[in-house]
Amino acid sequence: MLQTPKRSPEYRYNEISFFLNGKKQIVRLSPGISTLDFLNKKLQMYGTKCSCNEGDCGACTVVISYPRDGGIVYEAINSCLYPAAKLHGKHLITVEGLGSPEDLHPIQRALLEHHGTQCGYCTPGFVMSLFALLASIPHPDTESIMAALEGNLCRCTGYQSILNAAQELSKNFDPAGIVPAWCRKIESQLFTFKDVAQTVSATSDTLYSIEQYMKPENCQQLALLLDKHPEAVIIAGGTDIMVMVNIARRKFELLIDLSEISELKNIQVKNDGVHIGAAVTYSRIMDSGIIKSDLPELVRLCRLIASQQIRNFGTLAGNIANASPIGDSLPLLLVYDARLRLESLGATREIPLREFFLDYRKTALQKGEYIREIIIPIPPREAFIRSLKTAKRKSVDISSVASAIRIQGESVILALGGVAATPVISSVFSSSVPLMDGKAWQAVAQAVAEEFSPLSDVRGSADYRRKMIINHILQYAEEYHG
Ligand SMILES: Cc1cc2nc3c(=O)[nH]c(=O)nc-3n(C[C@H](O)[C@H](O)[C@H](O)COP(=O)(O)OP(=O)(O)OC[C@H]3O[C@@H](n4cnc5c(N)ncnc54)[C@H](O)[C@@H]3O)c2cc1C
Ligand code: FES
Ligand code: FES
Question: How far is Cα 420 from Cα 456, in angstroms, rounded to an integer?
Fold first, then answer.
């Protein structure tokens, strides 16, 4: 006789509840299934398209709406990288909800009238990115429109007609008509969403390479789970993890999602600097008054990372823990002299970021430990802090070389990414301050370029990378001397 397997409390739930295009849903999920697969394969909703399945093209863009900082946000995300388990308590809006052939949404009508669509494969993604933008900023300027669309590719129409449609909407359309009444109706319910937080556990579905997916509600639960399952892998946004799942077909026995832990969502100023929680996304950093005022270069850098869709759920802590030598935030965090608060069951410790990267993708994190927050001392106003990134495209491209510099009085710190197995701090500068004329800068730039042995790979040859190091340093010098 078949017996019902006994489950410990942590495996109690395998359902989530959320709103889909205005209607409450309670669904049973395969662990780790992406929102895109969930829509296409489980719900047979095909309006949301799949092209790259790795966050690069934007064809799969959908919008999530949820309470944040006292208001309701509408954010575009790449559904191919967004685990459906993250939808719990949110409103998922897809192109099917916005309009129909008989009753087009104003954004769809504008695209049609400005010839902003041809084969149409990319169009749902553009519609949803524009929807998120116009729901957030009623009359966006061209720069904001371009930023909102930088994560969407179109192979046939040409971007000008899409831009024309967006500009027309921005200028001449009543913003009140952008967010449908059924969306507004859900907003109050999102604030008072009471369903218990759900943990998605194993099901018999073997299609997906994640066996269990858990969502602890607080740091104590997180530490307990990590202690009990030291082999578990943490997922924050999932913008690195889900690429491994979708493209590299990497198997994960257990993913522990910390993105909904409210203790990890704070940005606070304390005596020792700005504390950024591990679940804080790039978008929140860019919107934060604290960061804009105390760490403005971090805001400028975040704007260069990935696309709007990725920034809406990717985190700074994920970029650090991923420990890629070309993680874009790492050189800047090094010159900020950032520290990490690492936590495990019953223990907490702080470590300078410069001691965190041990070797290629190897970090000082121990089993059962997680990054709880990033602590960035607030630099004095007179410190000159800048960062640069060289990539083939302006957006949605990881750098071949990234760097950051801090010049403060006599001291200069230069950090680089893409030139060694880990992000590094140059030692050339320590004895070369103050740097005064162009010749001195040129000599130092040359010395730094010779200090490291960068690899040649698809992003650039070693020689190219050395030239970029020199270019970055000379660019800093020019700006510094005005
Ligand atoms: C299309 C695309 C474009 C991208 N562009 C850029 C770019 O321009 N620049 C750039 O630097 N990166 C880029 N990335 C990479 C990625 O978006 C970033 O590295 C992002 O910051 C990862 O954050 P996440 O929250 O999504 O991490 P996740 O994918 O959730 O996790 C990444 C790693 O960190 C670990 N981890 C996460 N949080 C913690 C924690 N609190 N404690 C311990 N371990 C943790 C996870 O176990 C995993 O190993 C891009 C990715 C995609 C798909
Ligand atoms: S399918 Fe290309 S970004 Fe998701
Ligand atoms: S209309 Fe064909 S890809 Fe954009």
Answer: 11
